[in-house]
Amino acid sequence: MLDLQQLAAITGEEKLIQEPNILNQYSQDFSFVNPIRPRAVIKPRTAKQVYQIVKIARETGTPLIPVSSGYPHFRGDTVPAIGGAIIVDLSEMKKIIHIDRKNRVAMFEPGVTFGELIEEVKKYGLRLNMPLLPRQSKSVVGSLLEREPVIMPKYHWDIADPLACVEIVFGSGELFRTGAAAGSGTIEEQWAAGGAQKEAAGPSAASWYRLIQGSQGTMGIVTWASARCEILPALEEPFWIASSQLEKLLEMTHWLIRLRLVNECFILNNTSLKTILYGAEETASTANLHALPPWILFINIAGYEFYPEERVSGQIQDMQEIAQRIGLEPLKDLNGIKADKFLRTVQQPSANPYWKLRYKGGFQDIFFLTIFDNLAAQMETMHRTIYSAGYTVSDLGIYLQPVVQGVNCHCEFTLFYNPDIEEERERIKILSGKAVRNLLDQKAFFSRPYGENARLILNRDAATVNALKKVKNIVDPDCIMNPGKLCF
Fold it and tell me: Do 342 and 391 fall into the same domain?
């Protein structure tokens, strides 16, 4: 059995936490996963310390659960599945290692949050392709590893984007670098030779990053990652496009992305938009949130260093011609909500409290990838499921994010509820499980299964599970990395 003093010798006594109140915080989250208290929490500050922690854990058979984002947590992936586990909290590894303006790439440690990285890359004239309103404590590395959808599909070339390379300590104790970073020499030597750690594929013909993404810490611990960045626009013109017919907005979205006219581009139903705006007192006092249309498309047209006004003017004209053909009207003001102000909101992390907690205090997300042809049937299935369970349809938030150049779509249903009412919490737990099963029958692809639904989803694909277990046996032969998650 692991002697905790061995861990204290690595990081120092002050970075080894055993206080019951703190351990209780790591033992549960907002998901429906059963709470289990970890044995201790350790906070390494360097990659070398992570390597030493994994080495000792393997020698003693001690389970490790990596965590990089701060409180609160929502998906159950950081809650121990068995007793005696050590939480490896990476939130103090906050070094922004390198920013390369020429190649538009940034390298950073897992404790770096969106707010911290946004401000740093801005100094180099760059910006992040980021998810919709991540919480302030959200780790950028954590978001990249979870394949959270980003709000600029124009720059989303692969489902893994914008992740580039990672350095990972596998459960076997081996230090490994993926993609272009796997080349010979140290990272500093690669920089000197003109390397940028931007290409994700590799080493050789393998795409190891695809195995590491979505693994929920079951393969190893990432000590740094690099991500593709985009040029900071010189001029931006955002617009609202609202309709009672989702089909019209989907057609509009298709053409806008196909013709590469917009940067930010996503669809919300009125419940999700109202929930985002609940925390903005200035907006709430001037806007009529109760009269919002059922569906709202938000877009942003941008110009860069050369001739930004001409570029934006021409693209606005093209956008308006498409809207007119479909029968839609682009607006700068939607019921008192200014598009310019909302753009500034979604280009930053969510204000506190996290936007999904503002409505009722709790929520359960159901999200999957789909193609637009299947979306109508999946929407109908979800509405039929919640109606049969007695859930109020107006409490259902919906977020549609085109991904990979608009080839497919991230569909996210949010069930808002009051977690302090045990009966309501249990009802949502049952409802979410039923909804997942029904959506699976309608060709929903759950590429990121969490919690109690993970086994339900993975058990439908025995070949993939078998392959994952073979790889797991190679990189984590003693199964010390987050055991009990996914199919392990």
Answer: no
